[in-house]
Amino acid sequence: MILAIDSSAGTAVAVADQEGTCVARAQTEDRRSHAEAIGPLISEALEQAGADPSDITAVVMGVGPGPFTGLRVGMAAAQSFAWVRSTPVWPVRSHDAAALNLTGEVAVVSDARRGEWAMTRYRPHPDGAVGVAVGPTRLLATAELDASETHVEGARIIWLESVDPAALAVAALALHARGEQLLPARPIYLREPDVTMPQ
Fold first, then answer.
1. DSSP label at 89?
2. I want to staple 29 with a disulfide (CB 3.0 to 4.6 A). Which of 10, 38, 52, 121 is the partner?
3. Of the candidates 103, 100, 81, which has an alpha carbon nearest to the alpha carbon of residue 90?
4. Per residue in 20-61, pLDDT tens?
5. What is the distance between the alpha carbons of residues 23 and 46, in angstroms, rounded to a whole number?
């Protein structure tokens, strides 16, 4: 079984089988209580699935884009769970969860706060599963993109308000199956840190 964890927006956990079928899901849309929510949500998802932690053979970890603190909570939980059980971690872009079964080029857009959007462009892949990211995820100012728009730069917009961890597991399985190199196990931050240490 596969455990998928993402905290780039709310906090979301899913358990899926080896084909990517969702067996259990637990999540909260609260964007301020990631640390308090993550442990109980993992326990809830495993209980719903009737699974023991030893049944997990891979951990899918959403790496953003997302805010600094919330994103790191989910990543730390995923890495800790995997480390304790010597289970592989599959880091994937959180936007990948919305880029499944594409019929044309899309732009997955999420709220990056501070008057900006995070955008990743995708084109379809021949296997029909998760699309291929076209370039890196980047920031757009709200002056460049209005929330009422349906297209940007010629691509259809998919507005992503929350990440489905089960879809993230499907995306990770597809990328793994076609032999693509997964992302580094580092959070995708699109801004410089607010606080830096003096040199």
1. E
2. 10
3. 81
4. 999 999 998 766 777 888 999 999 999 999 999 999 999 999
5. 9
